[in-house]
Prior knowledge:
Residues 21-198 form the Glycosyltransferase subfamily 4-like N-terminal domain. Helices cover 37% and strands 20% of the residues. The protein has helices spanning 23-37, 85-96, 108-119, 133-136, 146-161, 172-180, 206-213, 233-243, 260-269, 287-292, 308-315, 346-357, 360-374, 379-394; strands at residues 2-4, 9-13, 41-47, 54-58, 61-66, 68-71, 74-80, 100-103, 124-127, 166-169, 188-189, 219-224, 249-254, 276-280, 296-299, 320-323, 338-341, 398-400. Helix 11 crosses helix 13.
Amino acid sequence: MLRAAHPLSVLVVTDTYPPDVNGAAYFTHRLADGLAGRGHRVHVLCPSAQGQPHVTMAGEVTEHRVPSARIPLQPTMRAALPLGLRGHVDRLLARLAPDVVHVQSHFTLSRTALARARAAGIPTVLTNHFMPDNLYAHARVPRSLQSVAGSLAWHDMVRVAEQADHVTTPTPRAARLLREQGLRRGVEAVSCGIDLDRFHPRASERSAARARLGVPDRDSIVFVGRLDEEKRVDELVRALALITPDLDTQLVLAGTGQREEELAELARALGMEERVRFLGFVPDELLPSVYVAGDVFAIAGVAELQSIATLEAMSTGLPVVAADAMALPHLVAEGRNGYLFPSGEVEVLADRLRAVLSSRTERGFLGAAGREMAAEHDHRRSLERFESLYAHLGGAVLASVPSGPRVRGDRYARIVQG
Length: 418
């Protein structure tokens, strides 16, 4: 493996960062922490969670928070204010003189930093986490206008991405999508990665995990993510209603979102109010327990460029039942670690869940295979790739160092669920 012979100075720029709760924010935070943990000087430029600018140290990462305002119709998120942003970025680049600038989107802060870094002759990387589907519900785009709005959004994204020295996205399917949308330059698939040590099989702790979360000790279908339109969580609720006459099971939902109340009303209408458990926002330290509490992970979303939650579930040894949409088929091998279902076909989803929940032995085999497949997405591999990429773009000297321990076939993958 090649890595930089000397510490690099990296400026990571993102329009969403914790305390925001979404996949892009989660990935960017882990990327920054991981790079700092490998000895690099890491700065993050992101919107202020309070609105006022400030600089703070979060562990070994320096956070530069710029002025922000609440996003209309999305009260939990804030956007960087464009006024004075260019000058702020120019001054920061001059002061830090980073070896590379890595932006995480094509929105206001990221596009400004990308343009100013190019003007200053600093190498740039852009990682795309964007799907127009993720914006439709938040921006209240009428269904009749979504096709036009999506085309315009993709055009804007591609125009910004063309300016970067290197473009990455989490999966080969996401890379192909960018090319289909008109990106002319090369794009590399680099997994978001997961922490295999943090998310690992612990079937013997399942009952204790349920008690910790305050849910009944019965077979559990688990979903982790935003309760928003493109996640199609209503399909999971409807499928639950179809299988409960045969199986004593429940649906555990970890996350919040715009459709939470609507989903609760649907559960009541279907007589499932006691079997759909809303955990709300789950603190990061409790997140592994959510997966441990489950018997199967289900996801019906149609706009997943990778799905970190699905990878975390696989790493924990859970079988996966997923919509046959976007990048999810890259994670689910039919009959090996789970099953796919045609998006929107709730009866097929229910059949797939019923098949998994009806056989403890099959759950064990599917879960063990999922753990082995998840090992290919070890976050250390992703960090190594980004580190090598930064060093190459920045002209740093690369040194050969021993690779980390192999994770394929690790001891957790051999644990069959009890």
